[in-house]
Design brief:
The complex is a heterodimer of chains A (202) and B (347).
Chain A: E1 6-10, H1 14-26, E2 30-34, H2 37-43, E3 51-54, H3 63-72, E4 81-85, H4 91-97, E5 103-106, H5 111-136, H6 142-164, H7 176-190
Parallel strand pairs in A: 1-2, 1-3, 3-4, 4-5
Helix pairs in contact in A: 2-3, 6-7
Chain B: E1 6-10, H1 14-27, E2 30-35, H2 38-48, E3 52-55, H3 65-76, E4 80-84, H4 89-96, E5 102-105, H5 110-143, E6 147-151, E7 157-160, H6 162-168, H7 180-183, H8 192-202, E8 206-212, E9 215-224, E10 233-240, H9 242-287, H10 292-326
Parallel strand pairs in B: 1-2, 1-3, 3-4, 4-5
Antiparallel strand pairs in B: 6-7, 6-10, 8-9, 9-10
The chains are: A alpha/beta (202), B alpha/beta (347).
Chain lengths: 202, 347
């Protein structure tokens, strides 16, 4: 029997936590909720969710700080994170954190649609982690692997934002073409399966 | 009606004195008095304020005419004409040093006396006018808070005002006609030398800003050309703009701080508006209401408005970056150092 995937919602707005919980349950997830960054990091000491949905503008610890906390704590360092926020990102934000997240979603969105996509995102991420583990054992240059893992996420996040937002201003400083070329190069060099690069869109 | 010219006679020979008095009255002058000693001459000058003194040198007193004449010249500036039978070189040398207006040898005639007096009075008037002009110019120059000086074509100081002397720490008279670089202090004039060449070749005024120690100056170099190139000079002005610079700096800092605050508020508000929108969308989709589509359309409209606010925020970020790049000399001394949340911007 397959266990239900667990999703941790981190948002300081109770209505958002409540609705997410309802939708996630309907789509076959086991939801947990935290009302802030500190509570989230605290929860991760006892639980290892399969996906984290993270708000950005929270006090006193904001979403980016929480994200770094999640990545620095070994048990949670590999958990996929999706940013869901009312704050439009800047190119700077994406270049800095895009490699650490699966997607960046600006509210409001249709929860039904995005919750459906979570299964696929979790699966894709597991596959990426498996591939990396596989290549890790034979690859001398682990720096290239780390770069690949970060780059494939950054490219995905940027392409998703480009597709979803009418307004390109927030990503116009990201050299997407160059990043994609580098990703192709690494993909070939390291021998990843091609379909990893298919979009991981929520 | 013009006042009569008053003349004091200093003569210890009574007959000569009376003769002179008659002569002067005949010319239409007023005689302020007759003194027969040097001491008395000084006392009468102080009392009567004559316009001119006819002074015998050899007097029957401890104080001779030259000593009394020097005192009167120095303290009162009244023109002196020596009338004497002595003319040794030593006496003439002594007399010369008191800047007399004339020197008449006895025996004299009326014409000599009248001509000497008229020329002395005329020269004295000219001298007074020149003095007045100098005082006026000096007053004007010192009324300017800026440090100014006038240099000749060899960069030697022709004149400077008190403010400049004060900055240089010298007294005014001590440095006239000295080379500007020689009197320089704290490297104030270091940058001038290279600009002089431009100034001379172009003949156009030069203005630039410069920091010297803790002060900021706007320095103007203005060429003043004369028909004779040797006489052309350069006017140098140091205008203190330290306060202006400080004010400008703080204004820019405040402006940028304000933009940062606005941007932060924009972001927080947009985030807060999107939360209820998300909640409404979630609830509406959940319950399958009759007017679900209408409600979602309204939500979409509000969302597009918030997106417009977002664009404003991005623009503010660009304005801020622009200000930082173009106006702040040192972005590090911003009151609020660059932080991730309030300093987004796309560049």
């Amino acid at each position: 029997m397959q266990l239900m995937d667990t999703v941790l919602i981190v948002d300081d707005e109770s209505a958002i936590r409540e609705i997410f919980t309802l939708y996630l349950e309907r789509k076959g997830f086991k939801p947990h909720a935290a009302s802030g960054g500190l509570e989230c990091l605290d929860l991760l000491k006892t639980q290892t969710p399969d996906l984290i949905l993270l708000d950005l503008m929270m006090e006193p610890m904001d979403g980016w700080e929480t994200l770094l906390g999640i990545r620095q704590y070994p048990p949670s360092s590999q958990i996929p994170v999706i940013i869901i926020t009312g704050k439009q990102p800047t190119s700077e934000d994406i270049l800095q954190y895009g490699g650490l997240i699966e997607d960046f979603i600006v509210k409001p969105v249709d929860f039904k649609i995005i919750c459906e996509s979570f299964h696929r995102i979790i699966e894709n991420d597991r596959e990426l982690v498996r591939e990396i583990d596989r290549i890790w054992n034979r690859e001398q240059d682990t720096g290239l692997l780390t770069e690949y893992a970060s780059l494939i996420r950054l490219v995905n996040v940027t392409k998703n934002l480009e597709k979803r937002l009418n307004d390109r201003q927030c990503i116009d400083q990201i050299p997407l073409k160059k990043l994609e070329e580098r990703l192709q190069e690494l993909n070939k060099k390291l021998g990843f399966t091609e379909h990893l690069q298919e979009q991981n869109e929520a | 009606m013009t006042e009569k010219i008053r003349i004091l006679i200093v003569e210890d020979e009574l007959l000569v004195a009376e003769d002179l008095k008659e002569m002067l009255l005949g010319f239409g002058y007023e005689v302020s008095g007759i003194a027969d000693t040097g001491e008395m001459a000084i006392a009468l000058v102080d009392e009567k304020h004559p316009n001119l003194v006819l002074m015998d040198i050899n007097l029957a007193s401890a104080m001779d005419g030259i000593t009394a004449g020097r005192d009167i010249r120095l303290r009162r500036g009244i023109p002196i004409i020596y009338v004497t039978s002595f003319a040794t070189q030593a006496i003439i040398d002594r007399a010369k040093k008191t800047h007399p207006s004339g020197y008449i040898l006895k025996p004299f005639n009326e014409r000599q006396i009248q001509t000497a007096i008229e020329i002395a009075l005329y020269n004295n008037e000219l001298e007074e006018r020149v003095n007045e002009n100098e005082i006026t110019i000096r007053t004007l120059a010192n009324a300017i808070p800026d440090a100014v000086m006038l240099l000749d074509h060899n960069r030697q100081v022709i004149a400077l005002n008190n403010a400049m002397a004060c900055r240089l720490g010298y007294n005014y008279t001590g440095i006239q006609r000295d080379s500007a670089v020689n009197i320089d202090r704290d490297g104030m004039f270091t940058s001038l030398e290279s600009r002089f060449k431009d100034l001379i070749s172009s003949g156009l005024p030069i203005r630039f800003e410069e920091q010297n120690l803790d002060k900021w100056f706007e320095i103007s170099l203005i060429p003043i050309s004369r028909s004779d190139e040797q006489n052309s000079c350069i006017f140098v002005q140091y205008h203190d703009i330290t306060d202006h610079k400080r004010f400008e700096g703080s204004l820019k800092k405040e402006g940028i701080t304000q933009i940062e605050k606005n941007m932060e508020q924009f972001q927080t508000l947009n985030d807060q508006i999107r939360n209820p929108l998300q909640a409404i969308m979630g609830y509406v989709n959940l319950d399958g209401l009759l007017y679900r589509e209408h409600i979602l359309n309204q939500v979409k409209q509000i969302d597009s408005l918030v997106n417009r606010l977002d664009r404003g925020w991005v623009e503010s970020g660009k304005v801020k970056q622009f200000l930082l790049r173009h106006y702040l000399d040192n972005p590090d001394d911003l009151p609020n150092p660059k932080s991730r949340e309030n300093c987004g911007g796309c560049s």
